[in-house]
Amino acid sequence: MNSPVPVPKDLPQQVERALAEDIGSGDLTAALIAAGASGRASVITREKAIICGIPYVNGTFARIDPRVRIEWKIAEGAAALANQCLFEVTGPARALLTGERTALNFLQLLSGTATATHAHVEFLKGTACRLLDTRKTIPGLRTAQKYAVRVGGGHNHRIGLYDGILIKENHIMAAGSIARAVSAARASGATVPVEVEVESLDELRQAIAAGADIAMLDDFPLDRLAEAVAINRAAPKPLKIEASGGVTMDTIRSIAQTGVDYISVGSITKHVRAIDLSMRFQWER
Description:
Elements: H1 11-23, E1 38-45, E2 49-50, H2 54-64, E3 69-72, E4 79-80, E5 84-92, H3 93-122, E6 130-132, H4 142-151, E7 165-167, H5 169-175, H6 178-187, E8 194-198, H7 201-210, E9 214-218, H8 222-233, E10 240-244, H9 252-256, E11 262-264, H10 267-270, E12 277-284
Parallel strand pairs: 6-11, 7-8, 8-9, 9-10, 10-11
Antiparallel strand pairs: 1-5, 1-12, 2-4, 3-5
């Protein structure tokens, strides 16, 4: 099955690294099984989830043994119910056993990320606000998790330090002011959005005057967020407003209703809980 969201280009490298750290010099336990033995297995989810990671599962088993065949019962990004069968896999028994953990690790983690993202996005329905992720990701799996965010209905903030400029307190101090920092960003020639993290309404006004593209309002209470939105809308050249810091599913809708353009939530990738999956085997002798 093809994903409706473009798959990360480094998927093969991520699969390769994951298999290398697990298999090492060889799967000693799978070697106990007769080389010619075949098997069949089915994978079920023990809880509701937004399923994400199909290309990673396919890539894992294909890398181990191209004779493995997978029949998916669900599409990428679809909602699964508890105890629903997600896929059946057949092929050489050794390959199924060797690939089980790595394949499920990808599927559990990415489905957990997509599920958490979807849960937050549901609270934004009826508003114009978009959910953004952050760079608070599991090392080595950033593109995979950001892919899962998109599958779950969220949007990506910058992928890394190379595709967006985010001017924070230390950058402002080093540059001397918000205006100087934004000016330096424009002078650098980088054709990426310039965002400024502000800690007060006065700093928001400075970011607007400096010509920034986005202002990140960190830990602003609701009344100040609403005031910030009003100030920005009245400006000759408004920028985009992003709310961040301490956002939960209990507060996210109220934040969105202030009129901010984006809400960034680090927990959807940082505090992700893997979905509970189970693989059940049947051996052919």
